[in-house]
């Protein structure tokens, strides 16, 4: 089994988001970066499948060198080697083109990633990659089992879940509880240092979208406190003042 | 030319979120001087689809083949692209959902279209076409220009104010649409679909009542359920509650769970960890009930009550019952 896991490099979920350069760039100052939480689930399941079936697991990131510590962490968790496409990711389409290019050269059985990256929350890269490779894509996948060449997938749909059987190859966007996050052990961290991290230049393409500026949400007005003894008035306020009932 | 809107169906009717997307698409069409065409895929009664006209769409294309019964992003994207070609659509609009994103993504790759997901407002259309979208799980916004000839927008709930009173009684013309479907799109077989059909879906609900660890245990959930019932609300929960198996996973709202954007979100015994707030910050109005006055959730709330949920919820339920 040949597995590719795509990871994003994103601010920690508790990070305070601010912008610089006239609101055109994320302020990375003091922000802790992590492997995208959903990608981390995909990676954990990828490692389990590799342990079960053998084969190889490559981790892929589209981004600049500041992501290398996170890529090394993925290697420590159990990936065999890594590829970093050395480019600032311009948008989902651009990222997908880069991933698809690597995939075309390597014919993976399974391409896993998170259901979305938690920075831009688009949730479309798996679908784009699937279409570019002309193979099925499914998301969000909560359970993934493989028997022979048949894959059983449980994915979340609106208000429930759907169980599918599909042949390989596949592109899957993952979420919990597909696997438990893995924490690298000392041996993993040591071996990760010598595992190959290949830096590849991107395929050039003109971006179809261009970010112009960023903004923070307007500050929330003060919370109107209602004494517990008068709790019932809440219902009236919701109806007449907030007009949401 | 036209603006094409993909409307998701549920049990033979257009989903509420998709009606909002239709209204959004109609406004975009008005700005570009085009007409708005709706695409519906799956089985539905004609009179249900005609309702798209109430929100300003002139025509509905209905692809109703039996094999399109199950949500299939590959076949649906094929259908969407063929509909866009037939209608000469330059702007394609979908609702933000697992299905919406999947169909939009595959269609974008087929048409080399610029795609922006998570759009929160109407586009600014002039010499350029700019959209605002939510990023960093609601912590910020980005204004993005779409430069490609064909543009795909995946729109979040509450991107426009849907004024039900201005809804017209005009009916849309429904046309059958028979796309050419490749066998490759049907390689997967659906083994089983489990839908909690009796429950109101969290993503569609206008009101949500949600519980956290302050509810003290699964056996204490009844007051919350009663209150939700009195309001016609869906029920949700925080991550710890779902992790502890007090409530099913599909009720988990937050950064790694479901993101919701109801008109009213009522949090009972939830302290308001940043990961939970990330899942609810699209809500129009937030009410927090918590015995701890220092709970961080109060900072994100519109209304707050400091007190014991078990004492307050039954009283609110009684007050809510007098509403109707």
Which terms summarize this structure?
A: 245 residues; alpha/beta; Rossmann fold; 9-stranded mixed sheet; two-stranded antiparallel sheet; 15 strands; globular; B: 324 residues; 7-stranded parallel sheet; 5-stranded parallel sheet
Structure description:
Chain A: InterPro entries: ETF_a/b_N, ETF_b, ETF_beta_N, Rossmann-like_a/b/a_fold. The complex is a heterodimer of chains A (245) and B (324). The mean pLDDT of chain A is 95. Chain A has helices at 37-53, 68-77, 92-106, 125-133, 186-192, 233-240; strands at 2-6, 9-11, 19-20, 25-26, 33-35, 56-63, 81-86, 110-114, 137-147, 150-157, 160-167, 170-174, 197-200, 209-215, 224-225. The N and C termini of chain A lie far apart (54 Å). In chain A, the strands form 3 sheets. A 9-stranded mixed beta sheet of chain A has the order 11-10-9-12-8-1-6-7-13, with helices on both faces. A two-stranded antiparallel sheet of chain A has the order 2-5. In chain A, helix 2 packs across helix 5 (186-192) and helix 3 (92-106) crosses helix 4 (125-133). Chain A is of the alpha/beta class. Helices cover 27% and strands 32% of the residues of chain A. Chain B is of the alpha/beta class and 324 residues long. Chain B has 2 domains: 2-186, 3-Layer(aba) Sandwich (Rossmann fold); 207-321, TPP-binding domain (Rossmann fold, 3-Layer(aba) Sandwich), CATH 3.40.50. In chain B, helix 3 crosses helix 4 (98-111). At the A-B interface, helix 3, helix 4, strand 9, strand 10 and strand 11 of A face helix 3, helix 4, strand 7, strand 9 and strand 10 of B.
